C-alpha cells in the first residue's frame, strides 16, 4: 500500500501474467482486484480485520471455474476479542449466492451507521430508529432538491443537545422490538401518551435508562418546538441557540415580551435566539431547553 503507483502497477501486472506465483500484500488487495488465476489466499491475523474487509478479500480468489481456498489464521481463542470471534463466525456462514445483503445487515448491526444526533459522531442507526433516520434523509434530500412542498408538509424541529438519546440494546435486547418501540415513539402526540408509553416500558423491561428518559424528553421538546415554530435547537456547554422557521419570528410581539423577562436571552441579527447559561450536566441541558421552548409557545 506504500508503493509508488507505477511500481504497484508493474508488480500487479507481473503477477497477473504469472511471472511469479505468490503475491504478498496488505489489505489494499481487497479493492477491485480481479485475477482469475488466483485460487488460494492466506489472511494473517484475520481477527484484526473488519467483516466487510474479510468478505472483500476472500472474494479476490475463486473468480474463475477453478476451485479456490481462503485460509484465515488467528491466534488462540482466549486472545481474540468477542467482536473478532463474532465476525469470523458470521463470515463462515456467508457461503451462498446473495450473501452480500446478509453481510451488510450483519455489518450494520455490529458497527452501526453513525450517530448524526451525537457530538462524537458514533453510534448505530438502530439507536436512532429507522423512521427517524429515514425522516432525516428525506429532509436532506428535499433540501438539496429545494422541494419546499415536502419540507413544509413534513418539517420537524432539529434538536441537537449532545446527550445520549436511545434505547440501549442491554435494555431491550431484541432488535426488532427496539425498532418497533422507536416507531411507536415517533407516533406519540402528547404528554399523556408519552407517560403511558414510559409506564409500559417500565412494566415490560424495568426502570428507564438515562438514554430512554432523554429520548422521551427530546421528543416532548420537539413537539413543543413545532408549536413555537422553532426549526432548530443547538445546545453547547455555554448555552443554546434557537433558530426559528424561515429565520423569522411568527409572533414578534410575544417573542420580544418573553425576551424582556429573561436577562440571559438575546435576539441575534439572524433572528435566532441566544440563551446563555453554563451547562455541564445532561439534565441541565434538557431542563434549559424544555423551559425555554415552553416559554416560547404562545398560550392559546
TrEMBL record:
Matches recorded under SUPFAM superfamilies? P-loop containing nucleoside triphosphate hydrolases, TRCF domain-like
- A Pfam family that the UniProt record links to this protein: TRCF
Which Gene Ontology molecular-function terms are recorded? DNA helicase activity; hydrolase activity
> What region holds the Helicase C-terminal domain?
1-109
Entry keyword ATP-binding: yes
Biological processes per GO annotation = DNA repair
Q: Which UniProt keywords apply?
A: ATP-binding, Helicase, Hydrolase, Nucleotide-binding
Q: Which Gene3D superfamilies match?
A: P-loop containing nucleotide triphosphate hydrolases (3.40.50.300), Transcription-repair-coupling factor, D7 domain (3.90.1150.50)
**Sorted alphabetically, which InterPro entries does this protein's record hold?**
Helicase_C-like, P-loop_NTPase, RecG/Mfd, TRCF-like_C_D7, TRCF_C
Write the protein's name: Transcription-repair coupling factor
